[in-house]
Amino acid sequence: MMGSSADQFIAVKARWLLRREKGLKSGGLALLDYGCGAGDLMRVLAGLIGNKGARAAFTGCDVSTGMLAEAAQRWPRHLGTVPALKAQDGARTNFTDGQFDIATISAVLHHVPVAERKAVYAELGRVLKPGGRLYVFEHNPRNPLVRYVIARTPIDKNAILLDADEVQHGLLDTGRYEVETDYLMFMPPGITFLRGVDRALAWLPLGAQYAVTARKPA
Predict the structure, then answer these.
(1) What is the pLDDT of residues 68-105, one digit of tens each?
(2) With 70 as the cut, is the pLDDT of residue 51 above it?
(3) pLDDT score for 1
(4) How far apart are CA 87 and CA 167, in angstroms?
């Protein structure tokens, strides 16, 4: 009921994204997963799209070359070509301006020191095409269970959670965007027949995760 694997929690975000970016299923869109780690979000997205191979052009970047190597190793061959994987230099990447239609950053910002977050927002805006969309997924500090879990998770020992409003303000400080927020994961991901409840409560700022959408002017 709670979710038998981490992939079930990632799939909640992936399904949410696919409802908003239907072009990912038909192809022709370039997607960057910033701070991709072992490539789990891209892998789950590709699996939801179908077993004939990912139709989006996936690219991942991360500060850890070890994680990028793991992402390449773990990519299922039936999902098509391994995503392009590039190392970051801190917040910076070596991608060209306006290279991507879509950028995602999932559960990364709470590990970024507060003083360095502005540089991350600026870099994400730089690599987006005019009219591109940025999706920021983060743990919601307004949810008491999230705070409880984060405080007891070793990997999050030095994490500094951030509210959706902070993300919106940070993005607007670095660029002109249309921004909005949805809240996710009100129900355990293993209870599939309650997915509609999550959609109905997307306005309520108590979900375990949130998704900030920022649309760059065309």
Answers:
(1) 999 999 999 888 889 999 999 999 999 999 999 999 99
(2) no
(3) 38
(4) 24
SS3 assignment, position 76 = coil
Rounded to whole angstroms, what are the CA distances from 86 to 34, 38, 116, 126, 183?
A: 10, 12, 20, 16, 30
Query: At 183, which amino acid appears?
Result: Y
- Integer Cα distance of 18 and 21 in angstroms: 5
Residue with tokens 């405080």: 151
Q: CB burial class (10 A; 0-12, 13-18, 19+) of residue 216?
A: buried
Mean pLDDT score, 181-199: 87
Provide the 3-class DSSP secondary structure of residue 122: helix
The one-letter amino acid code at 198 reads D
Contacts 24+ apart (CB under 8 A), 64-69: 64/37, 67/36, 67/37, 67/38, 68/36
CATH number belonging to domain 6-215: 3.40.50.150
Mention every residue, 6+ apart, whose C-beta is less than 8 A from residue 185: 9, 12, 198, 207, 208, 209
CA atoms lying within 13 Å on the CB side of residue 60: 26
pTM of this prediction? 0.94
d(CA 16, CA 129): 22
